Amino acid sequence: MNKAYQSLERHFARLSSLSDALGILCWDKEVMMPHGTADRRADNLAILEGLRHEILTAPEMADLLAEADAGEDPWQRANLAEMRRVHTHATALPGDLVEACTQATTRSEMAWREARQNSDFAGFLPHLTEVLNLTRQVGEAKGAALGLSPYDALLDSFDPGTRQTDIDPIFARLRTELPGLIAAVLEKQASLPASIPLEGPFPIARQEALGRRLMQQLGFDMTRGRLDVSAHPFCGGATHDVRLTTRYEEEDFIPAMMGVLHETGHAMYEQGLPQNWLSQPVGQAAGMTVHESQSLMVEMQVCRSRAFVEWVAPLLRQTFEVAETTPAWQPDNLHRLLTHVQPGLIRVDADEVTYPAHILIRYDLEKAMIKGDLALRDLPAAFNDGIHSLLGLSVPDDRRGCLQDIHWPEGLFGYFPCYALGALASAQLRTAAYQQDASLAPAIAQGNFAPLMQWLRTNVHSRASSASMPEIIRAATGAPLSADAYLAHVRRRYLDHAPDA
Amino acid sequence: MNKAYQSLERHFARLSSLSDALGILCWDKEVMMPHGTADRRADNLAILEGLRHEILTAPEMADLLAEADAGEDPWQRANLAEMRRVHTHATALPGDLVEACTQATTRSEMAWREARQNSDFAGFLPHLTEVLNLTRQVGEAKGAALGLSPYDALLDSFDPGTRQTDIDPIFARLRTELPGLIAAVLEKQASLPASIPLEGPFPIARQEALGRRLMQQLGFDMTRGRLDVSAHPFCGGATHDVRLTTRYEEEDFIPAMMGVLHETGHAMYEQGLPQNWLSQPVGQAAGMTVHESQSLMVEMQVCRSRAFVEWVAPLLRQTFEVAETTPAWQPDNLHRLLTHVQPGLIRVDADEVTYPAHILIRYDLEKAMIKGDLALRDLPAAFNDGIHSLLGLSVPDDRRGCLQDIHWPEGLFGYFPCYALGALASAQLRTAAYQQDASLAPAIAQGNFAPLMQWLRTNVHSRASSASMPEIIRAATGAPLSADAYLAHVRRRYLDHAPDA
């Protein structure tokens, strides 16, 4: 490695400190900040983001990147490649486009909140039109800089290395198989006795203690992170200080518990990133798909499995002081509650079987929007058609249709597919892990996550961004990412009722 | 005003955002941060501080300051003057001296923690020697840049505009009067029946509710701030988001309550700064002395007054569910508990009568150290002599002597006098306020702080740094800062037992 590379490492370490600061300030904004300071905080965050952008796009940085030689070490080489990718993304956009995007999405997000409430797509259309126009310019500018199509360039912002040509065949397979599979699962479910609801209330202090207990069980390091409460659960904070949140309802503890498990999956990834590289681009998570695979690994693959439910049932009864023999609190019923399938209109409420359908619809639509093949006035009808064809439901209003998500109003195009890819990746990784190490499944049945986490550390977490998502999945599982493992998982859990699924 | 000035306002607004970020991150460090991330956070803070220093000392900034013309508006003129002062402080020190100071004080602070525990002055001496040598260089460099003596230059870092020549006669007066006054107060106190201790425990949730109730009573805006818990109470956060902390003990509620009142005094000052100028140097608090005067105004001047105790006694009984007639909880006894005087060795535990003595000793010693008139090996004996001559106590070990405070180990010379000046200023301001507006005292007796806060807003808070501490005190009270009001206050409260003192 040469001096220019060493100098770049110092610059990027400074950028990493700014990112840490932004991470903690964003966490604070959602968890701690008094509401009267919201505008000022927004200004502060914008100024810090601006500083980061300034440092990243300074002429000196381009010179150093041109001169840099990372030498033979594969991590330093990968680090330099990531530096160049990040730099290209940042410098691809002219300053006035960045500013126009910020202003348009700020306006659009506010307009969307009102439009959603009133199911007023027509009122929102001018905002979405503006955001889409600007996002298409972003895609073109980034695409030109990266040598990619506009949609691939947008994808690359969230999931480096993932391309439309990888996704299309996978999603085509899901589109073919999913409707029949959902129907079969619903038929099987209807043939079984109905689940018994759990009766609350469930005191919040106990829910919180339960969440902390499960985080500990998963191996979360409380000396380098926190659990708190926010309106929308998330995993954020800084590289050495991973902070997750949940929200509690007294009437039902399952949403908070599953929320903590989901976010702890994200957090374990962050805490498992290589300590020596945390302040460099190569030491960051490999993108949205791998991140989501880690949260779904915990929440969906493991913690809704029969084996885990067997282990957790006594802990739940003890937490909420329920008699050991109460029928609703037996593993069988708890498992049924945790794996209930019900096609619905709202993506974020969907179970793991119907969830990908929501993504397939959005993926097609956003590709068409970026390409210019879908006039925005036709979006609601196209969205509703998609829901009807994949889930058999009629959308009664746009509030529960194409206005339900914040992503497009915020200018996030190329983000949705990662959710479904993450679900597929989680199934593929879990299947490979259980096959490669026969001790993992029995350990989970004892509530022991250590062997699974060790496998994930070795095969996923510790690789950080030294490889791309497609490379990480292939190396860990021996095959490229596909829908196979996910479809097999759904059949085993929901049709075969395999005892470990 | 010209373009250069306008450009400076933009630069300083960016610096203000960085300061806000640092303020919230420092608060988080004390209140929220998991301990395993302490080193990383220290790095992050150092890097953000470095960025701020870089922006402030960039060549462009010097050019703009040279070109700038603030025009005729007095606030813009004062703002430019403050920009120049801040810039001079920042650019006065060569980079290697700043770095040497940071490293030396980090080492010294760690060594001090151990040395204090073991009363090991000899072991700490090399560290203090290094820190003092560097601090003398800082004083000389800043002094040369500001046209001040080294000690005045150090003072100016904490209390702009305050000079040794202002302090010397005031402290000389205290040195003459204080020993006799303390003796008289103790004699008077001994002639009265002993106070009755309050019996706990005092549940922490109720102490916290009491603290919030009192903050509300003082007018603290909870939409722009918070109350939390930390090991050492402080008031920090950001310009629009003032965060104070306290700590609770179950056995005694008075320390936490007085802590909240003290920090709320600081916080009211911050919340009362002019909103339009918050992101500019002129909009900041006018320095340590005025800040301390505002905390002591609330904690000492008002909330230990007989009038306030009369009002608060029923609230305290109600909070802790004490019968109305319990003798210990009558105003008379509560007031005696809150105004108990006891010469002691530890500065931070001192009452308002003996507190200035601790400062007089440190002021003389630190002036001599900076001047080079005191060999550090002679510091313990000189410190102990001072305590003996002013408070009549023998210091049994350096842990309770010259090793008790973190200030010198941290390189804070010129900081101590502001504590005592703040106490004098609080008495002088309170006396002037009560004289100028006869409605203030009766309002306090009703628990109504609004008129007093209005007076402070007008005469102190809203002036921010548009004037220096000496100017603010003189304009608000009609006289330069002196010990008169403080001495009169002590006599009225502790000797005359005036009904409103």
How are the elements arranged and paired?
The structure is a homodimer of 501-residue chains.
Chain A: H1 3-31, H2 38-57, H3 59-67, H4 74-91, H5 95-118, H6 121-146, H7 150-158, H8 164-190, H9 204-218, E1 225-229, E2 235-238, E3 241-246, H10 254-272, H11 288-302, H12 306-319, H13 331-338, H14 355-371, H15 379-391, H16 416-436, H17 440-445, H18 450-459, H19 469-477, H20 484-496
Parallel strand pairs in A: 1-3
Antiparallel strand pairs in A: 2-3
The total number of structural domains of chain A is: 3
Task: Quote the CATH topology of the largest domain in chain A.
Answer: Neurolysin, domain 3
Which percent band covers the strand fraction of chain A?
under 5%
SSE order of chain A, one letter for each helix or strand = HHHHHHHHHEEEHHHHHHHHHHH
Q: How does the major sheet of chain A shape up?
A: 3 strands, mixed
- DSSP helical segment count of chain A: 20
Q: Biggest interface: chains and residue counts?
A: A-B, 32 and 33 residues
Oligomer: homodimer
Overall SS class of chain A? mainly alpha
Q: Assign an overall shape of chain A.
A: globular
User: How many distinct beta strands of chain A?
Assistant: 3
Gyration radius of chain A (Cα, Å) is 23 Å
Mean pLDDT of chain A: 96
What are the low-pLDDT stretches of chain A, counting only 5+ consecutive residues below 50? none
Helix share, percent of chain A: 55-70%
- Strand order, biggest sheet of chain A? 1-3-2
Organism (chains A, B): Acetobacter tropicalis
Binding site for Zn(2+) (chains A, B): 262, 266, 292
Family (chains A, B): Belongs to the peptidase M32 family.
Pfam families (chains A, B): Peptidase_M32 (PF02074)
